[in-house]
Write a structure and sequence with these properties.
heterodimer; A: alpha/beta; two-stranded antiparallel sheet; 23% helix; B: seven-stranded mixed β-sheet; 24% strand
Chain lengths: 225, 726
């Protein structure tokens, strides 16, 4: 499977995702934001980091960058798109995913391991996970508090467009286990066609038992399925 | 403009020093030249009070590639891998403007490391605040922590270890020390020594603004009541630009374009140009009208003294400009040739075609003043405390009080604001004895830890100096690493006071003795003097940052209990030393008496024995015994685990409190499988290592026979409440 990782100035998880993709047998290319030709890809990843410093609003400048036109076009043609952390923020800025990522409710950067429940596995990204499976992933963000309007929220729930929700170690989805104040404990969402996934937790940080676990592996192997 | 005494003093120079400047120049300097002198001759850049003591430190060793004197120290960890690291203070700026002060402290130390060709792989910090009750402490803590987080998280280097302490001695002068660790190829290390005549001197990075002018002079004076007015001397950090600068520099370093490179840190363009020329025994001519400026109408004086961040000076090989410029343009950074190397051995400053300043390089560097300041010895305090004279307290109450005290509380409130996982090589995060970072795509790792013991150093500087080296060494051993080398950040008060200068001299003598004995050389460091306000100095607070090597990551170990039924042993002897302990401070507010004695020979033997047992896979968990003593160490071993412990009182004659809260040094707790007990105690006894079985791992409960029995999760809770309620 051919993947491309878009590198913006200020991206800082680009190397990590590349290592994970290569480890899991993707044929990966790094694409600099000024490049004019997006290689033919089955998967495009917008990595985590602080694109353009995120001094305006997370992902705002990257969302308007030239390379994003190519990404949007590819997305509309059905290419799989994965936005992690800052990548998720960029996806909401482009409108490929609806909603916004507000500042964390405690107004602080949060960097820690959390748990999410796989609330939907009937899609390209999660088919190797069991439904209701609890994953340990890592979050590291200042703006991960997902918010959207009630109609869209209902649509997300009704159409099974939420693959991951924050939960406790035992799977309880509640306020106590919501690290950033996200609506309905949302940790990631799809577009209607489910070819675009935006998520705040970092699956690429969980592909190695010796560092912190392997719960992120199946997200990538699902794509190869 | 006439240079008056007032102008001289405003530049932080003494009148005698000004006379020396005049005699070195053979004339009066102009204001620009005076500014350059003040930037180079202040304490921060010249080390004038500390130099003669620093010279005594051991700086060489089997693993040392580069000791002090460069941007950072370099050690060899085999297979053409080198580790480059340094610690630096940003105390004064952080007190004036905590967010930016701390952020630029991180930015500055990162540049020191990537300037030498290393990709930074870990950040650490040691931060000291005043009493939690002091009205400023809370906002300073918040500001500093978010400043460190803001910079490190954005640039994408994991912040993996650190220490946070509170003590009223820092009420008016907090300490913010940041350490950066990087990885380079041994054959691709870059130095700051200029070479060759007529080579292009290139300015890269951010534009120069008016921020941080005289920052280094500010950092070389004590605070007074008007310190808040010094805000404009604090620099403003831009981690995004630093990220670009780092990537651009590392990209340029892939070929052979760079002759030498130096970051513009304290005293900015002045110190970077002077240091490069001085090391190469050359002159340098700078065309100041070429300097990229952020603000209009900046004067040469402002350009030379600005401490705007995220800038570098590079001396390039002939004919490499075009390609180098292309790289910096790719990263949207300035790249301007602003000068050249010369054979005049002068720093020549030009504006348009006019020479506006000319100073011999050696007058700014090797001929800067060096002081052998008067100092007095600190006597070893007598131990007057008898535990039997103190009001009795229940063991459980004492333990819970210590666990929930600000200094011993779990610091996840802080560390959860740091990205500890970015770069995906963090094998052990903060909260343990040391953090562990894997060398990218290899099977080996480094362990890192920062430590300080200001109370011990205050009570007896020489012993305190030895103790921090030992504690740092022990922390690295406790995760399975062989300690290799250290960097130190020496935070002290006013060196013009003989008592303070004595604290400095004696702490250094202690550090030297321990480093020599443990074969643990000092490869880089930083001195921060004049910490204090209105002549009240802080406790002497040397901070040690150590790096150790784990050659096989499968041998890493942590402090958390692994299996019920396992035996728990104490390694190293307990003498019941309570003075200067956390116990006496927290429970009885007693702060006098001597610090625990250091026996370097025991320290080394015990440490090497534990390391051998770890490498032989005979230990399930290990933790060093440090502040808080044995009981606190044991409590901490239950925190990341489902297991507790049942402790039997050791068979010595010590009082219960002395047994559990003494801070005698050179001690560890190890957890072992019962089957291995004979083999292990035989090995320890053969090597004359004191050891005794003190308990057995059990599920869920922390228990001391006949004294206390607490659920481990309630212990954990009491350790976790303070920050969240502060």
């Amino acid at each position: 499977m051919n993947s491309s990782v878009i590198v913006f100035p200020g991206s800082n998880c680009d190397r990590d995702i590349a290592v994970a993709l290569e480890k899991l047998q993707f044929n990966n290319k790094m694409v600099w934001h000024k490049d004019t030709n997006l290689p033919k890809s089955d998967l495009i990843v917008l990595p985590g980091g602080f694109s353009y410093g995120d001094y305006l609003r997370s992902g705002a400048v990257a969302g308007k960058s030239r390379i994003l036109n190519d990404v949007i076009k590819a997305a509309n043609d059905g290419c799989l798109i994965l936005g992690i952390c800052n990548g998720f923020q960029i996806l909401t800025e482009t409108g490929l995913l609806k909603g916004v990522l507000l500042r964390n409710k405690n107004l602080k950067f949060i960097g820690k391991d959390i748990h999410v429940k796989v609330t939907n596995n009937d899609n390209k990204f999660c088919n190797k996970y069991k439904k209701e499976q609890i994953l340990k992933l890592n979050i590291a963000h200042n703006e991960g508090n997902y918010f959207t309007d009630l109609d869209h929220l209902k649509e997300l729930e009704d159409k099974n467009l939420i693959p991951f929700k924050y939960c406790g170690e035992n799977g309880n989805i509640n306020e106590e286990n919501n690290p950033n104040g996200s609506l309905n404990n949302i940790a990631g969402i799809f577009n209607n066609k489910k070819n675009i996934l935006g998520m705040m937790p970092h699956p690429e940080r969980m592909v190695d038992q010796v560092t912190s676990g392997t719960d992120g592996v199946n997200l990538f192997t699902s794509l190869l399925n | 403009m006439n240079i008056t005494n007032t102008i001289v003093e405003k530049h932080g120079l003494k009148i005698e020093e000004y006379s020396k400047i005049k005699s070195l120049l053979g004339r009066e300097p102009n204001l620009l030249e005076l500014g350059v002198f003040s930037a180079m001759w202040n304490e921060h850049c010249s080390y004038k009070s500390s130099k003669i003591h620093l010279q005594n430190l051991p700086t060489k060793g089997k693993y040392v590639i580069q000791g002090p004197g460069e941007n950072a120290g370099v050690i060899d960890i085999g297979d053409n891998d080198a580790i480059i690291f340094k610690i630096e203070s940003h105390n004064h700026p952080s007190y004036i403007e905590p967010y930016q002060g701390a952020a630029t402290g991180v930015g500055g130390i990162l540049r020191d490391v990537f300037t030498m060709g290393a990709r930074p792989i870990a950040l650490l910090n040691s931060i000291h605040f005043g009493s939690p009750d002091h009205p400023k402490t809370k906002s300073l803590l918040n500001g500093v922590v978010s400043g460190i987080a803001g910079y490190g998280n954005c640039i994408g280097i994991p912040t993996v270890a650190g220490e946070t302490k509170f003590n009223s001695t820092y009420n008016e002068n907090i300490l913010v020390n940041a350490m950066a660790v990087g990885h380079a190829k041994k054959n691709k290390i870059f130095y700051s020594k200029a070479k060759g005549l007529g080579k292009a001197v290139v300015y890269v990075g951010s534009k120069t603004g008016r921020d941080g002018i005289h920052g280094a002079s500010m950092a070389s004076a004590e605070f007074d009541d008007n310190s808040a007015d010094k805000k404009p001397t604090v620099q403003v950090g831009d981690p995004f630009t630093e990220k670009l600068l780092m990537e651009a520099c590392l990209e340029l370093m892939k070929d052979n374009s760079i002759i030498s490179i130096q970051d513009m840190g304290a005293a900015g363009l002045t110190s970077s140009s002077v240091e490069m020329a001085s090391k190469g025994d050359l002159g340098m001519e700078l065309q100041l009208d070429k300097v990229p400026c952020r603000e209009e109408k900046m004067t040469p004086y402002e350009m030379m003294l600005s401490e705007s961040q995220e800038r570098m000076l590079i001396i390039l090989e002939d004919g490499k400009e075009k390609e180098a410029k292309k790289i910096f343009e790719k990263w949207d950074l300035d790249f301007v040739v602003i000068g050249k190397t010369t054979n005049t051995k002068n720093l020549t400053l030009k504006f348009k075609s006019e020479i506006i300043g000319e100073i011999p390089i050696d007058a700014l560097s090797v001929k800067a003043p060096i002081y052998d300041r008067k100092w007095t010895k600190t006597k070893l305090p007598e131990n007057k405390i008898q535990i039997k004279d103190l009001k009795k307290i229940k063991l459980e109450d004492a333990l819970l009080k210590i666990l929930s005290s600000p200094n011993q509380s779990n610091k996840s409130w802080i560390t959860n604001q740091f990205d500890q996982m970015v770069m995906a090589d963090t094998l052990q995060k903060s909260g343990s004895d040391a953090a562990i970072i894997r060398i990218h795509k290899k099977n080996k790792a480094i362990a890192v830890s920062v430590d300080s013991s200001a109370n011990y150093c205050k009570a007896h500087p020489n012993t305190g100096g030895k103790q921090i080296v030992c504690e740092n060494w022990r922390n690295l051993i406790s995760v399975g690493a062989k300690p290799i080398a250290i960097t130190n950040c020496l935070n002290f008060g006013n060196p013009e006071n003989p008592k303070i200068m004595g604290e400095f001299a004696e702490c250094l003598a202690g550090i030297k003795e321990a480093c020599e004995f443990l074969d643990y050389p000092v490869v880089s460091g930083n001195v921060s003097l004049y910490n204090g306000t209105n002549t009240k100095s802080i406790h002497p607070t040397p901070v040690i940052g150590g790096v150790g090597l784990i050659t096989n990551i499968n041998n890493k170990i942590n402090q958390y209990f692994k299996q019920d039924g396992n035996l728990v042993l104490q390694i190293g002897k307990n003498f019941g030393q309570l003075s200067q302990s956390v116990f006496l401070q927290e429970i009885y507010s007693i702060t006098d008496g001597p610090p625990p004695e250091i026996n370097l020979s025991n320290e080394r033997n015990n440490g090497l024995a534990v390391l051998k047992l770890i490498n032989d896979k005979l230990i399930s968990s290990v933790h060093d015994i440090s502040s808080g003593g044995l009981l606190l160490a044991l409590a901490e071993m239950t925190f990341g685990s489902d297991y507790g412990i049942k402790i039997d009182k050791p068979k010595n004659l010590l009082n219960l409190m002395e047994c559990y809260f003494s801070e005698d040094q050179g001690r560890y707790v190890i957890e072992i499988q019962p089957d291995n007990h004979n083999k292990i105690s035989e090995f320890l006894n053969e090597n004359n290592i004191f050891n005794e079985t003190i308990g057995i791992v059990q599920k869920d409960y922390f228990e001391v026979s006949g004294q206390l029995k607490i659920k481990t999760n309630s212990l954990y809770k009491s350790n976790n409440t303070w920050y969240n309620n502060y």
